[in-house]
DNA sequence: CTTTTTGAACTGACTGGTCAGTGCAAAAAT
DNA sequence: ATTTTTGCACTGACCAGTCAGTTCAAAAAG
């Protein structure tokens, strides 16, 4: 019956079960897609009875929605921390962007399945969790947009840049490069990938020096 | 009594039906995903009986695979033409990249649903059409990689760039920016979006001039 | 010509299987 | 003592794929 128990954060047992279900669901859905993944499979992979899934989540869709919220929450936090820590260290906005690229890569390295699933769902329309997705997406992109906007204000970035579009392009750059890294050349190190993206960000691709 | 009519390539009727089915399938699958889209829906939207789908395609998966091949083929052709036409006009590799960005945007503007669906499926594993997808992906990315490699050879690009990774990042930049454009600010013009991406590509974001 | 035949293309009712979600009593954990 | 989990049988909707039958334009026959 408890609704949010006093201090020690909502009954550990339940939370542990939920976590197991998230983990099971995220890989299965990343591999197969939402509709092709059955509740029985999720329960089995989590090592839990089917009834438990429904004891913990109202429906398959709700499980998925909360998974999305949870995952993007982690990403957003991580991006924000990256930006703030460079600010504290007295770095400029370029450093902040660079740190956020790295934070993005670290996130994708740690949660590749979640990233896959997120990308696969992001531009779909007509789906139950569409609005949830829009909200969490905006939270994450807003962090990047914020840094860009501050950079324009303090003169570090050109006033001509299109903040939302550039933010989207940066996110896309990291996302797709990282997914390709994971899928097609997983032996590469994170530093390698980070260096390549840094170079691209700073326009050192068409650079005149060898 | 004819079996495949003399010259005029495989009965027009059949080809027209297939085309209608592609068009119906592409929007539905982009919106809902492969598994959530029923063959009945596809048939209905195409204005055709369900049996006709199976008369023309061996299965739902095969229909989808041929759709993928067809669509990526169009994109690849378009990218190649863009690169070649700048070459013929005596432009450098930066111009080629820029033209390819534009070609990508034009493609996405014309076939937004296909693009959506392609992105959503690209990083999935364990799916029937996985291998098909890898092949067509490589065809498209190879065009970008080719231009980058030539640019490195002729000294226009730094030798330090990581060709496959940079190619993936560029594709991602265009893809995500364009999908965001379509989804969240469709009123923007293609030229606008192109300009923003060009600026990013040429490192004129963190430029020192206002 | 006119009639008949042919066969590719198409139709839609039907089948067999799958799956989300339910119900509930008993067991385990806290 | 209460919350959480289990196990499992059950239901009803839904859906991929099938198949016997229809349509019709063009070819062959008369």
From TrEMBL, chains A, B:
<dbReference type="Pfam" id="PF17932">
    <property type="entry name" value="TetR_C_24"/>
</dbReference>
<keyword id="KW-0804">Transcription</keyword>
<dbReference type="Pfam" id="PF00440">
    <property type="entry name" value="TetR_N"/>
</dbReference>
<protein>
    <submittedName>
        <fullName>HTH-type transcriptional repressor KstR2</fullName>
    </submittedName>
</protein>
<feature type="DNA-binding region" description="H-T-H motif">
    <location>
        <begin position="38"/>
        <end position="57"/>
    </location>
</feature>
<dbReference type="InterPro" id="IPR001647">
    <property type="entry name" value="HTH_TetR"/>
</dbReference>
<dbReference type="InterPro" id="IPR050109">
    <property type="entry name" value="HTH-type_TetR-like_transc_reg"/>
</dbReference>
<feature type="domain" description="HTH tetR-type">
    <location>
        <begin position="15"/>
        <end position="75"/>
    </location>
</feature>
<dbReference type="InterPro" id="IPR036271">
    <property type="entry name" value="Tet_transcr_reg_TetR-rel_C_sf"/>
</dbReference>
<dbReference type="GO" id="GO:0000976">
    <property type="term" value="F:transcription cis-regulatory region binding"/>
</dbReference>
<keyword id="KW-0805">Transcription regulation</keyword>
<dbReference type="InterPro" id="IPR041490">
    <property type="entry name" value="KstR2_TetR_C"/>
</dbReference>
<dbReference type="InterPro" id="IPR009057">
    <property type="entry name" value="Homeodomain-like_sf"/>
</dbReference>
<keyword id="KW-0238">DNA-binding</keyword>
<dbReference type="GO" id="GO:0003700">
    <property type="term" value="F:DNA-binding transcription factor activity"/>
</dbReference>
């Amino acid at each position: 019956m408890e609704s949010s128990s006093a201090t020690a954060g909502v009954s550990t047992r339940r939370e542990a079960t939920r976590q197991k279900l998230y983990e099971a669901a995220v890989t299965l859905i990343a591999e197969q897609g939402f509709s092709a993944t059955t509740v029985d499979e999720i329960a089995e992979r989590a090592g839990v009875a089917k009834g438990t899934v429904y004891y913990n989540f109202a429906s398959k869709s709700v499980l998925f929605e909360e998974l999305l919220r949870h995952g993007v929450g982690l990403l957003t936090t991580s991006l924000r921390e990256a930006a703030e820590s460079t600010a504290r260290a007295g770095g400029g906005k370029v450093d902040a962007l660079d740190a956020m690229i790295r934070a993005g890569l670290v996130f994708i390295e740690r949660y590749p399945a979640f990233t896959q699933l997120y990308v696969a769902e992001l531009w779909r329309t007509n789906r139950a969790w569409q609005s949830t997705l829009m909200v969490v997406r905006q939270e994450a992109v807003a962090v990047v947009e914020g840094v860009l906007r501050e950079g324009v204000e303090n003169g570090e970035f050109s006033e001509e840049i299109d903040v939302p579009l550039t933010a989207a392009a940066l996110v896309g750059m990291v996302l797709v490069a990282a997914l390709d890294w994971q899928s097609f050349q997983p032996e590469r190190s994170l530093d390698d990938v980070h260096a390549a993206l840094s170079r691209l960000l700073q326009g050192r691709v068409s650079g005149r020096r060898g």
